[in-house]
Specification:
This protein is an alpha/beta fold. The protein contains seven helices and seven strands; from the N terminus they run βαβαβαβαβαβααβ.
Length: 257
């Protein structure tokens, strides 16, 4: 497959005129990705099931479009992505960022809680990737938000459903990358470390746990949302035109140990 004429230099990191959808886009890493992609020239669409957070995100990023979306609702995903493709002419980028964690010991985890996490982190990511790919032309890019816990069985607290689904998302990234390569659609993932967002809010109530996190991280700190967004922008941009099926850890050295 021909690579065509690619932008060079810093222009390769631009997304001018491209349509970028971000699930879980109203807060945390998702919003940081949306802000950065807007700055890189993309037409950004925020997708989130939290309507209050969407309102706040629109205030911060008024140029973005937005729509409420529950990634566990297959008919809603199909309707929303089809409508967005019709409105904007196409979909170029999907940041598959919606996620959920229910942190309980395995022997105390009800099946309903397990299924709830699987529905968002794994099934929801697949449904959104599939819906986006239907409207992507050659050059499309999907970036999944995995986790260091998807690449390591070790954890500082019980989180079996999250770890399992993020591990599944890592291999789904690779499988879709191979399957959709012939269509010119790249599929990659980022694997963030603990990041300063509301997602880890309950963990911050334990200063001892926060110190343990810093202790096991060679750079001795948590990540900032914009640091994850920088990696996502790279993978979504023409700068990564020869990168697919890759999982980029943004982890302060955690996985290097």
């Amino acid at each position: 497959m021909s690579a065509g004429v690619a932008p060079s230099g810093l222009q390769a990191f631009r997304l001018d005129g491209r349509v970028a959808l971000v699930t879980g886009g109203a807060q945390g890493i998702g919003l940081a990705c949306a802000v950065l992609m807007h700055e890189a020239g993309a037409r950004v669409v925020l997708l989130d099931c939290d309507t209050k957070a969407l309102e706040a995100a629109r205030a911060r990023l008024p140029a973005a479009h937005s729509a409420p979306l529950d990634v566990t609702d297959e008919p809603a995903i199909e309707r929303t992505f089809t409508a967005l493709a019709a409105t904007h002419g196409r979909i170029d980028v999907l940041v598959n960022n919606a996620g959920r964690a229910i942190r309980k010991p395995s022997l105390e985890l009800p099946l309903d809680d397990w299924n709830a996490v699987v529905a968002v982190n794994l099934t929801g990511a697949f449904l959104c990737a599939r819906a986006a790919a239907r409207h992507m032309a050659e050059g499309g890019a999907i970036v999944n938000t995995a986790s260091i816990m998807g690449l390591s069985g070790g954890g500082l607290y019980p989180n079996i459903s999250y770890q399992t689904t993020k591990g599944g998302l890592v291999n789904m990234t690779r499988a879709l990358a191979v399957e959709w390569a012939a269509r010119g659609i790249r599929v990659n993932a980022v694997a963030p470390t603990w990041t300063k967002t509301g997602f880890i809010g309950p963990l911050e109530q334990s200063p001892e746990l926060m110190q343990r996190i810093r202790d096991v991280t060679p750079l001795q700190r948590l990540a900032e949302p914009h640091e994850i967004a920088h990696a996502v922008l790279f993978l979504a941009s023409p700068a990564a035109a020869m990168v697919t099926g890759h999982v980029l850890a943004v982890d302060g050295g955690y996985l290097a140990q």
